[in-house]
Amino acid sequence: MALMRIAVAAVILLDIGIRSTDLEAHYSNMGVLPLHVLYQYCWNPYQLSLHAISGLWQVQAILFLLEAAGAVALLVGYHTRLATLVTWVLLVSVQNRNPLIGQGGDDLLRMLLFWALFLPWGRFYSRDARRLGPPEKVTYFSAATVAYIVQIALVYWCTALLKSAPEWRTEGTAIYYALSLDQVLMPGGRLLYPYASLLQGLTFATYYTELLLPFLLFIPFRVTWWRLLFVGVMYAFHLGISLTLFVGLFFLINMASVLGLLPPVAMNWLDRNLHTGAQRWRPWATEQLARVRPHLRRLQLPLRLSVEHNLPLTEGRRFLLRNVRNAAVAVVLGYVVWWNLDSVNNPSLYMSQPLRWFGYLFRVDQHWGMFAPAVFKDDGWYILDGTTTAGQHLDLYRDGQPVTYAKPASVMALHKNDRWRKYSENYLFVSNEYMRPYYCNYLLRIWHENPTHPPLRRLEVVYMKEISLPNYQVPKPTREVLCICEPEQPAKPNLNSAPDSAQ
């Protein structure tokens, strides 16, 4: 669990770093989703977001810094439970602020933090461990550990059960269609794409890995070897995904999530090697500390922080609190299992709308429909066709180069990061038509903020649609104009109109 804590904190810091490059674009009123649009079209009344208290990017920056501070505290294990709570609250907050850029990995990341609120994942490899000393035992069992393991299994079971299309279950063409999507195609995928038989085998291997492998987590004998097998296969599985498809942090989140399943034999090996490494750098660290200690004393900085200890709980109160906590976690776990069963369309277990408020409020709502029920086939690429006042056509997607309708060498490279790729995917849906003018006007504004750019009198967001066809057929792209916007022109005075007082 300690190893998972470190990995999850590192992924959150990476997520913050990626998101922070788009503070204005994704989280401010000057971006693609102003607060009034969020409230009108995307808001769930049961969801809360500190990031929605202001449309200023400066306020967003402060909240991002607070989340980063919580993640750093979580990484080093400093007041771990409080750091977990702060990080979870701010992670949920930023996800609620812009649902148009979310992906399946975000659901798993916040669920890991939620269950970790009830887990002692700060008892090793942490500042808390140095303060509290070694625990009485290194194994731990509670309702939260069961919830964590069940949650990992649900991710893969549900994504397999939701893959109901023939291309997954009978035809074996799902990986072929996935690698036909130029917007997510990585170099590794290009190497595999020409081999139809291999792609068919990988399709069935993917489906049955997701469907059957989680059962290994519940085999009661030879647990060590089954856990090692599960973690090893999952790492190979997600590493393969990362080399073939552009999925952002999805593969890292999944790889971090299974570290808590490592058995004692793996952790004992890691401890021995970490201890050996510590032996090598400890003399150097001691020498450096000896050098700075006089300076710290001169500045009157304490080397140790005093910690106030709470009065010890009686054994009876501790037993009562532990059982209340386990009961609460068990109820939430049952709710989460019910939610997931409903997501795979089991009519006998249907969860009515009034019961969903709890899931939305605490963000334990989840849906694992990755490439399900079928692979998305509306492939293509964007052209941001800006017309200058001189009549030239420039592509803002390619830094103002002349517009060309030739397919780019790498469609994936057009996207700044996976958040923008997900936004561009949602931009296509007719149900999200409301978001199109805001993106178009945002592009116009940032273009005109650069004085070296020629002024535009018109911008068209064009999608070159290229439907993925079977058997390596190459369709002819069709040009679809999704949005047209023009910069506001100052109103010309009407010299023939009457004075205001007479109108």
Comma- or semicolon-separated keywords:
transmembrane helix; alpha+beta; 5 strands; single chain; 5-stranded antiparallel β-sheet; 503 residues; globular; 3 domains; 7% strand
Task: Outline the structure in words.
By secondary structure, the chain is of the alpha+beta class. The protein folds into three domains: 1-140, no CATH class; 161-262 and 316-376, no CATH class; 378-485, no CATH class. Helices cover 53% and strands 7% of the residues. The protein is built from 19 helices and five strands. It has helices spanning 2-20, 23-27, 35-42, 57-76, 80-97, 104-116, 127-132, 143-162, 166-169, 174-179, 187-192, 196-212, 223-244, 250-257, 264-298, 315-343, 357-362, 418-428, 436-448, and strands spanning 378-388, 393-395, 401-402, 456-467, 478-485. The chain has a five-stranded antiparallel β-sheet. A hairpin with a 4-residue loop joins strand 1 and strand 2. Helix 1 (2-20) runs antiparallel to helix 4 (57-76) and helix 8 packs parallel to helix 16 (315-343). It is globular and about 80 Å long. It starts with a helix and ends in an 18-residue tail after the last strand. Mean pLDDT is 89; it is low at 299-311 and 497-503.
